[in-house]
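Following up on my earlier thread - several people asked me to post the actual chain instead of describing it. Fair enough. Here it is, all 352 residues.
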Amino acid sequence: MARTHRIALIPGDGIGVETVASACIVLDALAPLAGFGIEWTEYLWGCDHYVRTGAMMDDDALDRLAESDAIFLGAVGRPDVPDHISLWGLLIPIRRRFDQYVCLRPARLLTGIASPLAEGRGSVDLVIVRENSEGEYSEVGGRFHHGQPSELAVQESIFTRRGVERIAHYAFELARTRDGRVVSATKSNGIVHTLPFWDDVVEEVAAGYSDVEYAKYHVDALAALLILDPGRFDVIVGSNLFGDILSDVSAALAGSIGIAPSGNIDPSGTYPSMFEPVHGSAPDIVGKGIANPLGQLWSGVLMLEHLGEAEAAAQLMAAIEGVVVDGVLTPDLGGTMRTSDVTRAVIDRLGG
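Reply from S.P.:
Thanks for posting it. Predicted structure:
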């Protein structure tokens, strides 16, 4: 009997619905060719659900998601729903309930895509490893004296030894499978408690990986160097906030945030991991049929790799690279193709 993967599907909002539909068509075409099955369970959660019900997802959502092997998520967001509501009502509860402490965000400039930032500056082939469960994205703090001249807000960052150690180990282990270089993003000259602590713990971990080249950079200088000399970087490990920002810089280096994938990963496999594109819900192009599905498809590659379908993942990545070389590009990449054109071209490349 063919192996079957149970995938929880959350299309999300805006173009998320469109790119998820494209990716599902492609994955359903690939699965029988690669000898496995996919059992989709769709959940219509997100901002539209919030507007209807006052909650981003159902009360028992996390229990239902726990029954899946992985979660495949589309873009989430809607102009009339504040971003902190959509983030803290859906993504962060999923990441934390399922201990998805790694946010994996690869960036590679594919042949056939022009990057306004990387042109003439060498290759772009790096991975951001973002700590995904603590750091600056903390609920500790609050706002006081609302609406008064003395109003203030306090936001506490939370860094634990366990949290920093495990994300550092992940980064160094990943570097061993790549070019063997790790850079840590810090700002320990100005943030005097949490980031010196981060530096100390990462350096302790680095001492156990003598075969991996290690360096640290202040995050502002690192952002500049990413643009000026992207080829010097292989694996970049950063806190929740720094990793988030740097991964968008790396997506721009790769030509468009529309192709950028991500995986929210529990490396232990105890809980389902979640895979989503980095781009937003793009309400300005909803329904026009021009959303770029490559970020969603590349997230599907990460999902297949995580599920142990390495050969299928490689096939899908090769198909993505092939259609880009062929010039089958949506407008965000300077092309004229529609979402459906890209979808069909990827399937044709797979032989489906």
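The chain has two domains: 1-100+262-352, 114-253. That should answer part of your original question.
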